[in-house]
Amino acid sequence: MSGNVAEMVRGQGVSAPSHLAWLESEAIHIIREAVAEAARPVMLFSAGKDSTVMAHLAMRAFAPGRPPFPLLHVDSTWEFRSLLDFRDRFAQRHGFRLIAYANEEGRAGGINPFDYGDRYTTIMRTEPLKAALDEGGYDVIFGGARRDEEKSRAKERVVSIRNPGHVWEPRQQRPELWRVYNTRLSRGQSARVFPLSNWTETDIWSYALLHDIELAPLYFAEARPVVRRGGAFIVVDDEARMRWAPGEQVEMRQVRFRTLGCWPVTGAIESDAVTLADVVRETLGAFSSERQGRISDGEDGGSLEQKKREGYF
Questions:
Q1: What does the mean pLDDT of the chain come to?
Q2: What is the pLDDT of residue 289?
Q3: Strand, helix or coil for residue 30
Q4: What is the mean pLDDT of residues 36-57?
Q5: Cβ distance 226 to 234 under 8 Å?
Q6: CA 234, CA 243: separation in Å to the nearest integer?
Q7: Is it the case that residue 302 has pLDDT exceeding 60?
Q8: Sequential DSSP letters for 231-252
Q9: Hey, which end of the chain has fewer CB within 10 Å, N or C?
Q10: Residue 77 and residue 103: Cα distance in Å, rounded?
Q11: What residues contact residue 85 under an 8 Å CB cut-off, 6+ apart?
Q12: Long-range contacts for 86-95 (Cβ within 8 Å, ≥24 apart)?
């Protein structure tokens, strides 16, 4: 970490190297403990910043060997093209077996975020996720969610038990006193394990900076074609598939993303942050949640908690 950035984050009381070392140690402990109890573990990998950092922690946890599980990506079929390129390069470079799973019936049926609203998330993300987990017989599923992202995320335990059908009941969670994690499962249950639960957005960026972790290019500012929609800048990632509103015009803006999802429903922010150090500085001055860029979280009255109860990650 460059000296000036290190001093800056220390001045905010967060993400100094000793703090990051503690978070790293905790995350590695969680990953190792969960794998020790698992029959068929898997790690979800969206190629976003959180799952990329989590995958690097897994590599550190089992070095010099490889992590004993594959990466699973649920492709909504509306992913940013550069994100898919980054996903494939990452898996190949680091020797992970990558499983990409999509709802092919939904793809063939033209299910899209423009016309289907909240149903789109269920059909193209939640249902294929559950199908992929069932098909693989996975009992321990690592995810990169953090408690600071959104209020329903904050209700999760580090080890979050899912009942048959991948149903989540937030009122029936196990205590985790003194950081003791219970991964024992009854028939039909699975565990979703969140090693980054205690991390913040700033911790993620600072850790990536400290360890020189390559992240997806979409997180860094550059001139991109956008339209203004719903108070956000939507990057037109595939003009042929874009659904245009009357009067909309494409303009070039210097933007980047704090969070990544399906490109038609993920808002970018104007930014001059072109390096990791720039992003850390910008994040320290942010006053809004990164997840406010997810336009889909509030569609049609749907809540993230309800989606999670139904099996969404």
A1: 88
A2: 55
A3: helix
A4: 97
A5: yes
A6: 12
A7: no
A8: TEEEE-S-GGG--PPTT---EE
A9: C
A10: 8
A11: none
A12: 86/47, 86/216, 86/217, 87/45, 87/46, 87/47, 90/45, 90/47, 90/52, 90/55, 90/214, 91/45, 94/55, 94/59, 95/66
230 neighbors 266 (Cβ within 8 angstroms): no
52 residue type, one letter: T
Residue intervals of the chain classified under CATH 3.40.50.620 are 3-207+303-309
Q: What is the pLDDT of residues 89-124, one digit of tens each?
A: 999 999 999 999 999 999 999 999 999 988 999 999
Smallest CA-to-CA distance from 255 within 289, 224, 290 is with 224
What's the pLDDT score for residue 57?
Answer: 98
What is the pTM assigned to this prediction? 0.88
**CA dist 35 to 70, 101, 144, 198, Å?**
12, 22, 16, 19
User: Per-residue pLDDT tens for 274-294?
Assistant: 999 999 888 887 666 555 555
CA 55/CA 52 separation, integer angstroms: 5
pLDDT by residue (tens digit) across 136-172? Answer: 999 999 999 998 887 777 788 999 999 998 988 888 7
Phi, psi of 271 (to 5 degrees): -165, 155
Helix, strand, coil percentages for the chain (3-state, nearest 5): 40, 15, 40
Examine the pLDDT at 295 and tell me if it is beyond 70.
no
Residue type, 284: L
Q: What are phi and psi of 7, to 5 degrees?
A: -65, -35
Q: Residues 3-207+303-309: name the CATH superfamily.
A: HUPs (3.40.50.620)
